[in-house]
Amino acid sequence: MTHDPRRSMAPEPVDDEAIGQLVREAADGWTMPAVRLDAPSWRDRVRGPRARRVDAARGWFGRLGQAATAAVALTVVAALLAVVITRPPQPGSSPVPSSGQTSGQTPGPTAAAEASGLPKLILDGDVPDPSKIVVRTEQGDFAQVDLEKGSIGPALTGARYGSELRVMADGTMVCLCLSESLMVGESPTVASMAFNRYAADGTLTASTPIETFTGVPDPRDEGKFVPERPPHVLTSSSFSADGRYGLVGWSLRAHPMWRSGILVVDLENGTVVSRLALPDQGTGDGDARRVIDAPAVVGVAPLLRLAIAQTAFGWHPVTSSNATYEFASGLFAASFKGGQLTGAARIAGTDDCGEVVTRAGVSPDGGTWLACSTGGSYSTVVRRLAPDGSLLGDTRVMGRSGIEGDMTALSLDGSKLFVWNPVAATLTRVDLATGEAATGQAPIPAAAARGPLAAFGQWLAPVASAKSFLHGGVVLSPDGSSVYAIGVRSEATGPEAGGSTGVFAFDANSLANIAYCPPTADFVSLAVSGDGNYLYAAGLPGVDAAGRGNSRFSASITVFDTEACSIRLIAGLLGGETLLFGSPILD
Amino acid sequence: MDSQSRDRAADQAYRDHANDVYRVAYGILRDPDEALDATHDTFARAWERWDQYDSQRPLRSWLHGIVVHLALDQLRRRRVRRLAIPQLGRSPVASLEGSVGDASDEVARREIVDRALDGLKPTVRATLVLRHFYGYDYAQIGLMLGMSSGTVGSTLSRAHVAIRQRLEAEAGIVAPSGQAGDAADPSAIRRDSAATPPEVLR
Fold first, then answer.
1. A10 neighbourhood in chain B, CB within 8 Å
2. What does the alpha-carbon distance between residue B30 and residue B88 come to, in Å, rounded to a whole number?
3. How far away is chain B from the Cα of A347, in angstroms, using its nearest Cα?
4. Which of A491, A498, A485, A568 is nearest to A533 (CA)?
5. A residues 131-190 near B, CB within 8 Å?
6. Considering only alpha carbons, which residue of chain B is nearest residue A499?
7. Closest-CA residue in chain A for B83?
8. Contact indicator for A291, A316 with CB cutoff of 8 Å
9. Which of A:61-90 have CB within 8 Å of B?
10. Among A33, A34, A447, B166, which is disulfide-ready with B116 (CB 3.0 to 4.6 Å)?
11. Do A62 and B143 touch (CB under 8 A)?
12. CA quadruple A190, A195, A199, A201: dihedral positive or negative?
């Protein structure tokens, strides 16, 4: 017989005292887990920069493994960090945390002078084109921003993370829109994908259900407290390069297996034109558990096939808050012709490239290359495989731990990959045929700004940590001649970097730093206009340019003239949700 | 205070109060890993500012003041992480459909209260823990959270209403209209949640 825990609550009066007792009971169970001997403690954090970097690695793994850190991997990374990362202190940095506390007072937030917030709208010259753009919002939805008015519209779709929206040539929009329901352990068990079409003004004009995916909670965990609270069903979505098809990746638990695959959706009418199944994978043996992420198309593979990446993670023991985590990734190739996605085959030699395969493509010799990231910007590996699948070589580019996001951009001809280190402000170009790497370095300015709006770039201050990711942190100009990349301050007192050092422009051929755009806010996302004349930078809400908490700052978009990196426009009151650009090129 | 004395004092503080600091951090962050991170950050910050500690006042409340601010700052960063790692961004919406099956009463009870707390704002959760677990008065809590004593009182009051409604909805004894309802009906629960004081909800 199934026991219903809700009934045990029913007879009890729920007055204030009872609530207080319930809170006490709940909080009594919030006890600190054992600290591993190799984990950085508070003492490590007051020892110096190197210890802080180790700590940053720990913070990253903590986010990947929601409940506990990946103990084995952490040990390896901590050791690597201690050996590999050596970066001299930057001039002008302030290692001292912002203080302002007076003796005897309970410490409060930093008392350093706060910068005033950005204005609603400032324009220096003509309105940049495009002035009406679509952005992704923090809640996973989308919204239209009118830069001419400095305003943001309501949420467009009501959809959640996993949705994707594309603006068509006529200004209408199509969406692979995800909704989720029936939560178990804070994760949905049902994910429904729909094909929605919107008019240019955002009005919904058509909606077609695509598919509903249902995952089953692991029956072995009924009645157990599982700190990880794993997902039961996952989806991903993207569009084909020609804009004709939508690609919906899915995975769901059907214990004892995970099933997964990809649907191809015709964007004319929302019908599913083909279905590709990937091999089933187990849910984990004994007290180990595995989660298989939804597959995602990350590029192309030899013989006119698509490259499909799939990531998995596992942990054990299942009920431990200090579980050991393992990560795995792999790459498949499948034929894609006339909307028919068929014949998935695993590409050998791709399993141990890194934690996440972010990009893949075809080498000039007919082989395969793939880019894999580990720890966000911590490490990027470019792996080259011969046509017969043998390993030609790996090119590893080290970055900085603690900053999530894809730090790579592919040259227009697909022959080179740019890898950005946002803290060191170095841009590395990897030749995908030979694996050879060349690096350009930008000077990190202490404070610099030009033009009549220069004052908005002056908020450089000691920081509290703020930013931990970049989305579209490195983008190419539409003609491929320039690379723009967001820099991140490194002087955070906490375990993560925070604050923006601005946007650095590089010549894609010489890798020379050719321009510098000052930070008006803590930038997290970049896009370039279709004509290459304007660079759009989205700033975080709730923090100033230095990454210091400041409630006067709303989400913002700053537009720079690419020629001189001068500020053309600032829309500074775009609400409290973080905004991101969905596409690196705005038409 | 010389360096060695400060080290010894901070070590002792960690031994005495680490769990108390962790509890408040977890109440705000609801994530064991992040709470542990905030706990160590708190003692690191305390070590750096040890000369600002007034030894005439309880050490634990000083540490709680630090951890509250660090944890709330960490929450702001978490919002950003959700964008970077979609799994973390999924489903912050508290939901009641997921019964825990045949769990023991104790586990079930904790899960229910935990879910009720999940639906509250972090500052409200902090207020509840600081008040009900640690017994701080309104003025002390206000000092830690940067709000007036009156605001602390009204926050607690609204939090109690919110939790009561959640618990009653889980027990299936109160429907939104005030009539008996079926708690297994998700739509009924959503309607009930909508009646909760919005000031204290996420």
1. 171-173
2. 13
3. 25
4. A568
5. 138, 140, 160-162, 180-189
6. B77
7. A138
8. no
9. 62-69
10. B166
11. no
12. positive
Nearest neighbour of B76 by CB, restricted to A24, A30, A542: A542
Residue A194 DSSP one-character state: E
Of A177-186, A248-257, A458-467, which has the strongest mean pLDDT? A248-257
Count H helices and E strands in chain A, helices first.
5, 35
Distance CA A461, CA A499 (A): 9
From the centroid of its chain, how far is CA A127?
30
Which residue is it, tokens 């896009």? A527
Interface test with B, best of A63, A325, A544 (most B CBs within 10 A): A63
Res. A21 pLDDT band, cuts 50 70 90: confident
The answer to whether residue A208 scores a pLDDT higher than 90 is yes
d(CA B31, CA A559): 37
The whole-angstrom separation of Cα A537 and Cα A539 is 6
One-letter amino acid of A280: D
Which among A34-48, A308-322, B182-196 has the top mean pLDDT? A308-322
Cα–Cα distances in angstroms (integers) from residue A494 to residues A69, A270, A352, B9, B70, in the given order? 18, 47, 31, 22, 10
Helix (H) or strand (E) holding A381: strand A379-385
- Chain B hits for A227, CB-CB cut-off 8 Å, are 32
* Cβ burial, residue A56 (10 Å; 0-12/13-18/19+): buried
Strand partners, A526: A537
Asked if B19 and A6 come within 8 Å (Cβ–Cβ), the reply is no
> The tokens 């290459």 sit on which residue?
A532
ipTM above 0.95? no
Residue A33 structure tokens: 């887990």
Higher-confidence residue of A164 and B83: namely: A164
Measured distance CA(A371)–CA(A298) in Å, rounded: 10
Would you call B75 helix, strand, or coil by DSSP? Answer: helix
Contact A530, A436 (CB under 8 A): no
Contact by Cβ (8 Å): A503, A473? no
In the prediction, which pLDDT does B163 show?
Answer: 83
Q: A551-556 — which CB contacts under 8 Å span 24+ positions?
A: A552/A114, A552/A115, A552/A116, A552/A117, A553/A115, A553/A117, A553/A118, A553/A521, A554/A117, A554/A118, A555/A152, A555/A579, A556/A118, A556/A520, A556/A521
**Residue among B14, B73, B90 whose CB faces A42 most closely:** B14
Q: Is A203 left (phi over 0), alpha (psi -120 to 50) or beta?
A: beta
CB contact under 8 A, B69 and A108: yes
Picking from B44, B66, B173, the nearest residue to A46 by CB comes out as B44
Q: B201: which DSSP letter?
A: B
Residue (of B29, B51, B55) closest to B41 by Cα position: B29
- Is the separation of the CB atoms in A72 and A104 below 8 Å? no
Mind telling me how many Å the CA of A127 is from chain B's nearest CA? 29
Taking an 8 Å cut-off on Cβ atoms, the answer to whether B52 and A65 are in contact is: no
- B62·A106 Cβ contact <8 A: yes
Report the mean per-residue pLDDT for chain A.
79
* Host H or E run for residue A20: helix A16-28
The position carrying tokens 């930008």 is A442
In chain A, what residues touch B107 (CB-CB under 8 Å)?
5, 223-225
Q: Decide if A64 contacts A325 (C-beta within 8 A).
A: yes
**Please, which residues have CB within 8 angstroms of residue A327's CB and are 6 or more apart in sequence?**
A64, A70, A73, A311, A312, A313, A355
